[in-house]
């Protein structure tokens, strides 16, 4: 059986598939050539993608032999899962494989606010010795708000609490005895209360009709002027026009954005003019370790589905 991979995958994943007896065709740029992808897909039993390949009903219908779709990540907004279910095509994802990497990104964002060592180093190299400006602050005693309380938030919470931070959360689908509450001690709050109380707010929700622009002008105005917002989930959770206004007028202190509505970011995006916005190219989950885990996990689970074996990572 043949598997087509249309985006970047680490070699360990390809080797796993080959060792399981599959023929693998790998073109990390094929996602950008829709016409060629539609023409080729009928020749393959499996398809593995990241977040740029649009796996819609048209593509799945063209893949008459498709038995499984693998997603090298956890977000599924580029895959029409409803159509996949109707067509009987299982979708495999990299369950929790990059959770530690994203959690460490969030901690790094907060630490870079509290102790901006890179700025102090730059200033010293210019001939200065400004101890007052770079005194910094402690994370201990600060309040972190987590919006969405899944596995990534759980790992962020454990790390933040080890720094002495107070951690609160908002998630309408979390119950009192879920482990992030009962074992890790995250306090559940209403969204309005969380926004008003936190020094840092980190977003960990999927992009759905109910979360589109979850953070807009009203929510940003509710935040403390000294607070920072961190988005490693999906572009579109934050209204970028409202965020740019809030950053410009000082309604909040800053933002860390790893995801945007349009990726790569267009140079006309006004967020690029905000000195208090740190923008990274969708790398929160991209560490060498997480990519090996992701590639291996998806390859193994795709192989299981192809061999009619049960998988714990199927949507």
What does this structure look like?
This protein is 36% helix and 15% strand. The protein has 315 residues and is α/β, with parallel strands linked by helices. The strands form 2 sheets. Strands 8-7-6-9-10-11-12 form a 7-stranded parallel sheet, sandwiched between helices. Strands 2-1-3-4-5 form a 5-stranded parallel sheet. α1 (11-19) runs parallel beside α12 (288-306) and α5 (99-114) packs parallel to α7. 41% of the residues are buried.
Tags for this model:
single chain; seven-stranded parallel beta sheet
Ordered list of secondary-structure elements with their pairings:
Blueprint: E1 2-5, H1 11-19, E2 23-26, H2 34-40, E3 46-49, H3 57-62, E4 68-71, H4 81-87, E5 91-93, H5 99-114, H6 117-125, E6 143-147, H7 151-162, E7 166-170, H8 179-182, E8 187-188, H9 191-197, E9 200-203, H10 217-222, E10 228-231, H11 240-249, E11 254-257, E12 277-279, H12 288-306
Parallel strand pairs: 1-2, 1-3, 3-4, 4-5, 6-7, 6-9, 7-8, 9-10, 10-11, 11-12
Helix pairs in contact: 1-12, 5-7
Brief summary of the model shown:
By secondary structure, the protein is α/β, with parallel strands linked by helices.
């Amino acid at each position: 059986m043949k598997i087509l991979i249309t985006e970047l995958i680490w070699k360990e994943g390809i080797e796993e598939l080959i060792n399981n007896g599959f023929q693998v065709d790998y073109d990390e740029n094929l996602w950008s050539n829709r016409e060629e992808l539609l023409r080729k897909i009928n020749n393959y039993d499996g398809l593995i993608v990241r977040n740029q390949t649009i796996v819609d009903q048209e593509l799945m219908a063209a893949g008459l032999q498709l038995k499984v779709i693998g997603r090298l990540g956890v977000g599924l907004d580029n895959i029409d899962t409803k159509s996949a279910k109707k067509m009987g095509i299982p979708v495999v994802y990299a369950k929790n494989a990059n959770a530690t990497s994203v959690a460490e990104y969030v901690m790094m964002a907060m630490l870079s606010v509290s102790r901006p060592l890179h700025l102090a180093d730059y200033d010293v190299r210019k001939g200065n010795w400004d101890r007052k400006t770079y005194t910094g602050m402690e994370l201990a005693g600060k309040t972190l708000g987590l919006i969405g309380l899944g596995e990534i938030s759980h790992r962020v919470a454990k790390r933040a609490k080890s720094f002495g931070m107070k951690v609160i959360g908002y998630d309408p689908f979390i119950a009192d005895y879920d482990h992030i509450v009962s074992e890790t001690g995250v306090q559940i709050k209403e969204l309005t209360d969380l926004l008003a109380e936190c020094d840092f707010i980190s977003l960990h929700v999927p992009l759905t009709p109910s979360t589109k622009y979850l953070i807009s002008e009203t929510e940003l105005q509710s935040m403390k002027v000294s607070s920072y917002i961190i988005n490693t989930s999906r572009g579109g959770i934050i209204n970028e026009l409202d965020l740019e206004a809030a950053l410009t007028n000082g309604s909040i202190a800053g933002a860390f954005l790893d995801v945007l509505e349009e990726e790569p970011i267009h140079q006309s995006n006004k967020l690029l003019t905000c000195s208090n916005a740190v923008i990274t190219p969708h790398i929160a989950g991209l560490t060498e370790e997480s990519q090996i885990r992701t590639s291996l996990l998806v390859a193994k689970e795709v192989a299981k589905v192809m061999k009619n074996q049960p998988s714990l990572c199927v949507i």
